[in-house]
Amino acid sequence: MEPLYGRIRDYAWGSRTVLARLQGRPVPSEGPEAELWLGAHPGDPSTVVRGGAPVSLVEALAADPERWLGADVVDRFGPRLPYLLKVLAPEAPLSLQAHPDAEQARAGYAAETTDPELTHRNYVDPYHKPEMLVAVSPFRALCGFRDPARSAELLDAFGVPALAPVVAALRGGLDGLRDAVRMLLGWPETERAELVGAVAAADVPARYAGAADLARDLAGRYPADPGVLVALLLNHVSLDPGEAIWMPAGNLHAYLYGAGVEILAASDNVLRGGLTPKHVDVPELLRVLRFEVLADPVVKPVPVVPGVVTWPVPVEDFALHGVRLDDAVGSATIEVRGPRIALCLTGQMTVADGAGSTLLGQGQAAIGPAGGGPVTLSGSGEAYLASVGLA
Prior knowledge:
The chain is 26% helix and 32% strand. By secondary structure, the chain is of the alpha+beta class.
């Protein structure tokens, strides 16, 4: 294991405190800091030190892929790190979005790469982007469609006559859900502000107060965006620290507030439908969306060994372990596959494998090659260990 230096993305929705405090820098930061990236995605790769100078992790992996990645990872994913580890710090809602599956990503990337007249890209790489986020503070998110019948009752409670066709469509079940989303995202531009304003001003029964608060919050940020209404069709999830949300391909979602550790397939493909000043492509979003009920997007931690938990998800691209050590549990050894990245979130830990060891303080990270064998963490604090999910 050796030190790994991540990159911070300064999207407008980011916090000015979370990442600065994590890394021991002055608080508040000069500008919003949304994500800390730890990985080898070419959009913002982390670095390692070689000869006293920083070297892109992309270059380091390319120089010796068999050592870093291992033959089974190269065979399955090609000569690249298949996952990306992040710390997310949203202080304002992210865009309403979904991610393509593997086939959609390959086809979309190929089509856009050969289109000489394209001005905005949806597909920046040919890979899918399933993702999981583990809350490290209370975290709120919109995750997947709820039962359309419940959404029909909710929208009807707002008492906005213009929404009657949408309510009727939702009462038609999953087939109607597709029509409802298409109607809302295709709402005439000249009438959007009036519709969103009417919903934000509505007086609803007490049992729908949470949804009304969400609508007012989003409407205050995006007063002419029908995505405010689409957000009401999704599960509103509140996570306690240690709980996770799993977002498979094609599920509409938006993270709202909190701090979390996220692991995802190493892709930056995003199809946006609203709640953002960025490029929105409604037809392409509708094409990749899965109009299905995501009954329970929350993943509970599963104990592995004392002090260690994991969150099982059905992908091979990544796996994640959470580690909490104290005087009672001073060390833990974890069996992992492929290249591994450790992030110390609090306290101080030594992380070691067969390739070496390094001492991590709060906010520091390390990476080890595929042949390093089990990883042992010792010390006191909280850490996360990313690896591939191959069996």
